[in-house]
Amino acid sequence: MLKNKIYRYLSSEILKNFITILLTFAAIAWVVRAVNFLDLMVVDGYPSSVYFSYSVLNFPSIMSRFVPLAFLISLIISISKFERTKEFLILWTAGIKKISIVNSFFIVAVFVTFFQILLTLFVNPFLLNKSRSLLKNTELTQINSVLKANDFSDTFKGVTFYIEEKTSNNELINIFIKDTSGNLQTIASEGGKSKNSTIFAKKGFLYNKKLILFDGTIQTLNDENEIKNVQFKKTELSMVNFSTRTITQPKVQETSSKLLINCLLDQDFNQNIQNCSLTTEYKKEIVQNLSRRIGAPLYIPLISIIASFLIIYKKEKKYNYLKKYVVFFLAFAVLVFAEILLKYTGFSLTNTILYFVTPLVLLIIFYFLLIKNIVYEKITR
After folding, report:
1. How many domains does the chain have?
2. Which of 83, 96, 78 is nearest to 4 (CA)?
3. What is the mean predicted confidence (pLDDT) over 189-213?
4. What is the dihedral of CA 206, 211, 215, 221, to 10 degrees?
5. Mean pLDDT value of segment 151-163
6. Does 243 reside within a domain?
7. What is the 3-state secondary structure (H, E, C) of 269-302?
8. For 74, phi and psi rounded to 5 degrees?
9. pTM, to two decimals
10. How far is the C-alpha of 378 from the C-alpha of 59, rounded, in Å?
11. Do 125 and 261 fall into the same domain?
12. Is residue 305 within 8 Å of 366, Cβ to Cβ?
């Protein structure tokens, strides 16, 4: 009963440090990413509510990237704290075996591993897909902020704007519009036959998702390469059908794990995933993504075993002083190695198997080395 309380105490201390460090790292990275997301409002004209929702939905995916590192740091900090406060000394004196403490660290690591898999396999793809759908299903409401004076704007697909001047009441002076996608066919002559259009206007303004233009010319090029000019005193350009260059189709990392597996196994993927094809590049991307979701968390238990070497004491005090730095860099090197190996998982089945097998093999090796060191410490004490 007492031992269970001790193990729960140690585990709770590690988890508290882990959560604190993880949220701190994730919050810093999220703020940086949120600044980059400002382009959604400034460049693409999405409302602030969409920007905020999109940023929040991306937070779990950002957080999941820091789980292994946060767990490593929390373990080292916790073990150092237990040593500094003589808590470990009390445990050894009370007859608690070191291997039991190692096993308790391992159990915590397994818990964190399942947490990471839950995030990467289910939560992240779902929320990222929601964020992408949010952009796809939201109409632009701040078009006026997209159009800037003395600047060529190609925010909208197939359409380029140039505004020479923008007055304080948002009136546009000397407007140039080039359309190569047929978005302007509603105001071009010979409806639907226009290949591209060019519009010049002396002034205009935006009102109710329409661009009202005055005193200008519409120049159209039809499928027969015939140019036709139309003069106008006033015309209206609907901007309802305009779409930004922001990617609205879900990417691989935003697709559910089930659909990715179906795509990889060629099971009705055309009905589920847009542009799903088993070309070499696409298959490589799917394998890498699934390996990150399932394989990367498997390195967390290995980290717990490596960090457990901190409870082994050497006779030479200088080694005891340096050991936490050595252990940290060794565990960090493993995480870096895992990230490098991940990049090659899509190249061949052998690389993929190697990525999944490596943490298990290293776990067994380091575990037996740890037991050997614990036994040797008892003999030489």
Report:
1. 2
2. 96
3. 74
4. 160
5. 77
6. no
7. HHHCCCCCCCCHHHHHHHHHHHHHHHCHHHHHHH
8. -65, -40
9. 0.79
10. 47
11. yes
12. yes
CB 47 within 8 A of CB 141: yes
Query: Which residues 6+ apart lie within 8 Å of 158 measured at CB?
Result: 179, 180, 181, 182, 183
Residue type, 28: I
pLDDT tens, residue by residue, 301-334: 999 999 999 998 765 555 566 788 899 999 999 9
In a domain, 123, yes or no: yes
CB 175 within 8 A of CB 199: yes
Domain residues for the domain of 214 are 146-238
Are the C-beta atoms of residues 10 and 62 closer than 8 Å to each other? no
The torsion defined by the Cα of 278, 284, 285 and 288, in degrees rounded to 10, comes to 140
Region of residue 243 (left: phi > 0; alpha: psi -120 to 50; beta: else): beta
Q: Where are the beta strands (DSSP E) in the chain?
A: 151-153, 159-166, 172-179, 194-207, 210-222, 227-238
The backbone torsions φ and ψ at residue 330, rounded to the nearest 5 degrees and listed phi first, read: -65, -45
> What are the tens digits of pLDDT across the range 259-303?
888 888 775 444 445 556 556 677 888 899 999 999 999 999 999
Output the six-digit token pair for 312.
């082994």
> What is residue 80's three-state secondary structure?
helix
Which residues are CB-neighbours of 355 under 8 A, at least 6 positions away?
A: 291, 295, 338, 341, 342, 344, 345
Residue 194 lies in a domain: yes
In a shared domain, residues 156 and 126: no
From residue 364, how far is each of 297, 323, 355 by CA, in Å? 16, 21, 15
- At 79, the amino acid letter reads I
99 bridge partner residues:
none
Instruction: Note whether residue 39 is domain-resident.
Output: yes
